[in-house]
Amino acid sequence: MDILRIRGGNKLAGEVEVSGSKNAALPQFAAALLSDQETILENVPDLSDIRFMAEIISHLGADISKIGPSSWKIHPLKIHPDPPYELVRKMRASICLLGPLVARVKRAKVPMPGGCVIGHRPIDLHLHALKEMGAEISLNQGIVEVDGSAMKAGNLFIGGRHGSTVTGTANAIMAAVLTPGITTLDGAACEPEIVDLCCMLKKMGAKISGAGSHLLSIEGVDQLNGCVHRVIPDRIEAATYMIGAAMTRGKIVLKGIEASHLGAFSKVMRESGVLLNNSQKGNLDVQTDPSGLSPFEIITLPYPGFPTDLQAQACALACTIPGLSILTERVYPSRFMHIPELLRMGATVSLEGANAIIKGGKKLNGAPVMASDLRASAALILAGLAAEGETWVHRIYHLDRGYEFMDEKLRKLGAEVERLPESSLPPAFRRPTD
Ligand code: EPZ
User: Fold this and answer.
1) What pLDDT digit, counting tens, does each position of 4-32 carry?
2) pTM of the entire predicted model
3) Which residues contact 398 (CB under 8 A, 6 or more apart)?
4) Residue 154: which CATH number?
5) Ligand 1 mean position to 121 CA, how many Å?
């Protein structure tokens, strides 16, 4: 397992290319299964989660291959509804296969997703949507079996206690596009990734209205065609680099960003003193107010609220800003695995339930830290950039799931970041739990 060694203190400066969105591409790989024709997806990031999804789709019988650095061809001429248990168990996003399989081959068998460090991640809303459309659902030995042979259009409410569900909405849409009649989905997610999925499905011949709102209307069609679709830029990756620039008080240009996808995030950054300027279409200049940054308060919410996927990174930023910042996690209330690691770096944070109260301003010190999930990994790397001395981030396989070439991109921005084999870790840094 590799580690990252970071020497803190450099200001980030220069240009960084935003990659395609992981959370848009994953459901779109699944959506390609809705047609027996060939689909080409472009601007797909080179990530382990993407390769994993491709392996699962190949096991389902589709012909799938990478035809360029960020392009994939998927030709699901004939598929079966039984993805490999061991693979599906390891990646929650594979739940997005449910809708397309039920729609295309009228059956699906997927394992209940396993536990997740960021918190409880049930799929009750996914199954509720399918049941409301007439699917028969059973659970045997941890395997969810869905019979969609008698599915029909319906008027559904698919929201839950924590608000809308992103992949739950994706599954409901993909089940409805081939179900005869008009299905309405109220309480739907309106994330840019859902809008992009609808854009791809419409290219395939689907009839969807209301994308980007909480009320979708879908008229089922007999069949869908293949298409060529370019995945939207990754708003979470882009925002992660914006936070890195703010934490090091640097100045960067994000290239290939869709600034309109940033929602509440850009409002919070601007109010704290991060200067954002759309210098030209698709680019965003990021620097910080010379008079310094102000502490902030955020509550994570479904889009266009502050994204939960940026909460850990925002915690790291708050550590560098004098004053008290308060971060409340409403989507995954226990998503604070990064806090103990930030404390190892000298941060002053107190956790009160789903609230992190951060007293920022004291310089962070480099330390050996452990990544626990994708976004916590990014937060710890950013903290290392702003810290004094060396930070060693273990278990960065989490990072490779969702950030394309992050160490390379950071080096290009002037950071001292090196990817090393774990054996190069000084003995003193070997954590007892390693
Ligand atoms: C998507 O996960 C993203 N993943 C997550 O990103 C992201 O954190 C999350 O949306 C919220 O924005 C992908 O798109 C692949 P949800 P998803 O269903 O769809 C509850 C990352 O770091 N809920 O929108 O699984 C759930 O517990 C990952 O890139 C139910 O109660 O999330 C949560 O509190 C992590 N029942 C809330 O809804 C359900 O059936 C939002 O979850 C489904 C969800």
Assistant:
1) 999 999 999 999 999 999 999 999 999 99
2) 0.97
3) 371, 372, 373, 374, 376, 377
4) 3.65.10.10
5) 7
